[in-house]
Design a protein that fits this description.
Elements lengths: L1 H14 L11 E4 L4 E4 L2 E2 L7 E3 L2 H5 L5 E2 L1 H17 L5 E3 L21 E5 L2 E3 L2 E3 L19 E2 L2 E6 L1 H16 L3 E7 L5 H6 L1 H8 L10 H5 L4 E8 L3
Parallel strand pairs: 4-6
Antiparallel strand pairs: 1-2, 3-5, 7-13, 8-9, 8-11, 10-11, 12-13
């Protein structure tokens, strides 16, 4: 029993670390659907303007790992968002296992280049972050075709901030010879995203958004947007 308590205490201490874990040169092998991650980096559990969404996912499932470049891209984008919106908090959801590979129930997330980002929310037109404490239940949140939470229509997706974040990710990725390869968002939410000021810029960019998703997959991508990063070939 004492040994178990000690292990849990060590785990909690590690989880609260402000320094990303991992060392060595990162390598993403194979694809997001069949691949592995070598020498990845694990996101800090929490930083100034972002947090990882689930203690269980972070500690027990160990799913906060990415390629080192993807980690740097994500942190740079959050720094840019912090300049524009200093009080805004963001949410990282599941990434990859420490060594990549299959990660149920995801069909991708296998080589450290995929991240699920929690959709930024508003309540009565003001930033809402209570969902940041939902843990794994966050994936069960359901929104209507206009991006409003089904159980409370006062809560809605902040599409403008979402668009700004995706654009910031693309800029940060290009600096590291990578790019936003693919975005998965529930199909009927894309129009609302592209109608915003930054969404119009996003639509004009070369960032690819999935044009069709199988119904089950589509319904899973209303509370978050999935992003795959790609490497630019020289």
């Amino acid at each position: 029993m004492r040994k178990l308590v000690l292990i849990l205490l060590i785990s909690v201490t590690t989880a609260c670390s402000s320094t990303p874990k991992g060392n060595g040169k990162s390598k993403s092998e194979g694809s997001v659907k069949k691949g592995k991650l070598v020498n990845g980096r694990r996101f800090s559990r929490k930083k100034d303007n972002y947090k990882y969404f689930s203690f269980l996912s972070y500690i027990l499932f160990n799913r906060a790992w990415v390629h080192s470049k993807v980690l740097d891209i994500t942190l740079d984008a959050y720094k840019e968002c912090e300049v524009k919106h200093p009080k805004r908090k963001f949410l990282i959801m599941e990434c990859s296992n420490k060594k990549g590979g299959e990660m149920w129930p995801h069909r991708t997330h296998q080589n450290g280049t995929s991240i699920d980002f929690g959709s930024p929310l508003l309540k009565n037109k003001r930033p809402f972050t209570r969902d940041h404490s939902y843990g794994l239940r966050h994936y069960a949140m359901k929104f209507d075709t206009n991006g409003r939470l089904l159980r409370n229509k006062k809560i809605e997706i902040d599409f403008e901030i979402m668009a700004q974040h995706i654009l910031a990710l693309e800029v940060a990725a290009r600096k590291r010879n990578m790019f936003v390869k693919k975005v998965l968002l529930k199909i009927n939410l894309k129009d609302d995203l592209f109608k915003t000021k930054s969404g119009k810029l996003l639509k004009k960019s070369n960032i690819y958004f999935a044009k069709y998703l199988q119904p089950m997959i589509d319904n899973m991508h209303d509370d978050h947007y999935h992003i795959d990063f790609g490497f630019i070939k020289n």
